[in-house]
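ok, trying the design again with the full structure, not the truncated one.
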């Protein structure tokens, strides 16, 4: 896969978001390498966000 790397910094995060945004404009075909790349970038982005921007649950 082209240019897949861990997201460790805000610059890495910004890069990943820019890469993912391209796929919203032109959705890759299911099962394609581009679809796999999108899935991996999305998972890396979600993990970074969960660590650095956690969403607190509502207190009841």
């Amino acid at each position: 896969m082209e240019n897949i790397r861990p997201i460790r910094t805000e610059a890495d995060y910004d890069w990943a978001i820019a890469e993912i945004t391209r796929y919203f404009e032109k959705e890759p075909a299911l099962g394609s390498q581009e679809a796999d790349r999108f899935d991996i970038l999305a998972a890396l982005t979600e993990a970074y966000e969960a660590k650095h921007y956690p969403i607190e649950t509502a207190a009841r």
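Keeping the full-length input from now on. The mean pLDDT is 92.
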